[in-house]
Amino acid sequence: MTNDRFLRALKREPVDCTPVWIMRQAGRYLPEYRATRARAGSFVNLCKTPELACEVTLQPITRYPLDAAILFSDILTIPDAMGLGLSVEEGIGPRFARPLRTRADIESLSVPDPETDLRYVMEAVRLIRRELHERVPLIGFAGSPWTLACYMIEGQGSDNFARAKALAWDDAATMHRLLDVVARSVAGYLAAQAAAGAQALMIFDTWGGLLAPEMFDEFSLRYLAQIVQSLKLDNAAKDVPVIVFSKGANSHLEQLADTGCAALGLDWTIGLGNARMRVGDSVALQGNLDPAVLKASPAAIRHEVERALHSFGPHPGHVFNLGHGITPDVDPERLAVLIDAVHELSAK
Question: Per the residue annotation, which of 12, 33, 64, 74 is the catalytic one?
Fold first, then answer.
């Protein structure tokens, strides 16, 4: 591979400079993405057309000297394949036509077959790997069971996902039934992405931070560990590094590191140095710049990059990233400043 520093960093091996990629790097801040999205007609159609998903995955790799590509898809592909009927409305967000409202709804769910029900994703992974020509590694991903369950129960986005929490309190057995079938679905989906060519895998536990500590352990952490351990037993995925990103769950870093993952993603509410002190060299760390920094001046961006690099220190095992996805209002030139700063300053 022409550039393998991302994979080397995940293994906590020495690198010539800190690798960098950006969550949602294929997104609305790029004019070329907006043009492809307009051709697709809808976000869901963009995700479900392998050629278009490949096109937008490669757009930031063509524009910037990034160290990894990430599959263009959505975390809600699994619930959609389970029959919930996904749509994504501009300015509103995702919605399910058939959200889970009863115990019978949950008991009727089954694990989708990645190569039939989600074949469009596997075709996209294979196509992207071919078109990358080994320039940089490809990251595959999925949502965490708790995060997917939140959307499946609520039917749309929410500030607190109170319906999902209420089910966990009122009928823990049914919630565990849901989380188990989703966890098995996520594990199979990620394993299939690895078999199709993904060279690293990431689990987005976007809403884990909404849970109180005891609930996090029972309804999120348990299933993250189940997925990681399942992947370690899969022939295609056992050697593929897994990144776990549980946004807002900084009080659980040690337990998250113990899941067996290769790296932890961090949001911007914890310093890299603090996180590294807590987990030691047991895992690599990915993150954790505030995405809003990209609205600041180039000088401020460079300063914040330098501060983050200094916080982590001269140790192996750092992948530079934002603490959440890049926002649509960012000037693409600001991201170029960040990427160049990471490579230049970390090499020193």
Answer: 74
